Amino acid sequence: MTANAGEIRELRTLEEFQAAVASGVGFLVVTDRSTPTHVHRVKCPAVQVQHFVTKVVTNGAKRGRYYHCTSLEAVQTRFRSARFCGVCHPERP
């Protein structure tokens, strides 16, 4: 299941996370209480499944969450202070 254009959808299960990454489309937003929110391309090597499992599945999203969106503009509107990943550079075409 993938997000519609402009839709931001929280990823709550490992299956949702894997489907978002497998789609190859869009961006992942990772929020965290300890570090700034970051925007990544869905295929970014810095986004690892074990981090998702720890943050969302094991810890119940208490300290951060993952979101999927196909529109960078929608991400920037909702997560205004988010930083772009220095590995995958989602701000570049």
Explain what the structure shows.
The protein is an alpha+beta fold and 93 residues long. The protein has one domain (8-84). 29% of the residues lie in helices and 19% in strands. Strands 1-4-2-3-5 form a 5-stranded mixed sheet. Strand 2 (27-30) and strand 3 form a beta hairpin.
List the topology elements:
Blueprint: E1 8-11, H1 14-23, E2 27-30, E3 38-41, H2 49-58, E4 66-69, H3 72-78, E5 83-84
Parallel strand pairs: 3-5
Antiparallel strand pairs: 1-4, 2-3, 2-4
Summarize the structure.
The protein is α+β, with helices and mostly antiparallel strands and 93 residues long.
Label this structure with key terms:
93 residues, alpha+beta, five-stranded mixed sheet, 5 strands, globular, disordered N terminus
Structural class: alpha+beta
Which percent band covers the strand fraction?
15-25%
Tally of individual helices: 3
Please give the alpha-carbon distance between the first and last residues.
Answer: 24 Å
Number of strands: 5
How many strands, which pairing sense, and closed or not: the largest β-sheet? 5 strands, mixed
Average of the residue pLDDT scores: 92
Give the radius of gyration: 12 Å
Order of helices and strands: EHEEHEHE
Number of domains: 1
So what's the overall shape? Answer: globular
Uncertain parts = 1-5
Q: How much helical structure, as a percent, in the residues?
A: 25-40%
Strand order of the largest sheet: 1-4-2-3-5
